[in-house]
Amino acid sequence: MADTMLAAVFEGQGALALKEVPVPKISAADQVLLEVEAASICGTDCQILKVPAGHPATPGAILGHEYVARVLEPGSGVSHLKPGDRVAIDPNLTCGLCRYCRIGLPNMCENMTTLGIFIDGGFAKYNVAPARALHPISHSLPTDTAIFAEPMSCVVNGSNKLALRPGESVLILGAGPIGLYYTALMKAAGAGKIIVAEVTDMRAAKAKEMGADIVINPLKESLPDLVKRETEVGVDAAIDAVGALIADALLNTRRGGRILLFGMNSNARFDLQQYDITRYEKTVIGTFIANHTFPATIQLLESGQLPLEKLITHRIALDAIGDGLDIMRSGDAIEIIVTP
Ligand SMILES: [Zn+2]
Ligand SMILES: [Zn+2]
């Protein structure tokens, strides 16, 4: 093994540097040295690299929080992994000790840190991660499917809260990566009718591939009219995959319906009529990252029910990550796979 490796390092103030850094070594019994198979670029990476930043990160950290890897060397205290095993990585490391960790809400941990954001992640050939972050995946699971484990574990967490029953109708607002993941998942969950609202043609076409029954461009056609025509009373459930569309979700959901808010936009503010939620018994649900959902997500990916590999629009080598980020920012990409 070489002593150094190429890595994409966050340097603060919107700067990402490709540079040679020392290959990491395990320094504690619970750590594992990994060889990265592939990583993917997340919208959060673009947020980190904005000026001013739309998401915090630690200068000096190697980015890349969505990655799949192979175990090279487990630390002496690691019993659930051996060299050669493949793993999906849950990048969010929780403390296990705070009140939230102790009441079953590790995603609300007060001392959380994240591989690939605050500490070194997967935009490099090698990485060291704590064993508890590593979830075994089968040798037969294609990398192109396994790479979705991290974002899908968050999507599955929201889906568990929404608890869609077979045959129910669902409206998905926005067909960026998250909206598309939800489209595929709601199809697998037995949705009776999936309506997706999306303004770009490329993403609208992808929504069809993921299982949407109807895709509407709300700038060209009235969404409430379409929902009324298709469902009479409004959809049973709505998902805001954008983070600013709660009003549309409320408007198009039937009495007693559920609304899942997944997208995040800290600047969005609304003038809402709270009365509608009370009078019509609507349930509004927030959801954030994963919560013990990795194992089920990996089983779901291994079952082959989700055609997520169709969302891979670009493949790049690590030394072209700057181009990859530009493509991501342009909106022309869904999933960009980066290989070290
Ligand atoms: Zn992400
Ligand atoms: Zn905690």
Describe this protein's structure:
With 340 residues, this protein is α/β, with parallel strands linked by helices. The radius of gyration is 20 Å and the shape is globular. Helix 5 links the parallel strand 10 (169-173) and strand 11 (193-197). The chain is built from eleven helices and 17 strands. The longest helix is centred in the middle third of the chain and has 14 residues, at 149-162. Helices cover 27% and strands 28% of the residues. It has helices at 43-48, 99-102, 143-146, 149-162, 177-188, 201-210, 223-231, 246-251, 274-279, 294-303, 321-330; strands at residues 4-12, 15-22, 31-40, 66-74, 86-89, 92-93, 113-114, 126-130, 134-137, 169-173, 193-197, 214-216, 235-240, 253-261, 283-286, 312-317, 335-339. Strands 3, 4, 5, 8, 9, 16 and 17 form a seven-stranded mixed beta sheet that branches. Helix 4 (149-162) packs across helix 10 (294-303) and helix 5 (177-188) packs parallel to helix 6 (201-210). It has two domains: 4-148 and 306-339, Medium-chain alcohol dehydrogenases, catalytic domain (Quinone Oxidoreductase, Chain A, domain 1); 154-286, 3-Layer(aba) Sandwich (Rossmann fold). Bound molecules: zinc ion (2 copies). One zinc ion binds at residues 42, 44, 65-66, 151. Residues 94-95, 97-98, 100-101, 109-111 line the site of one zinc ion.
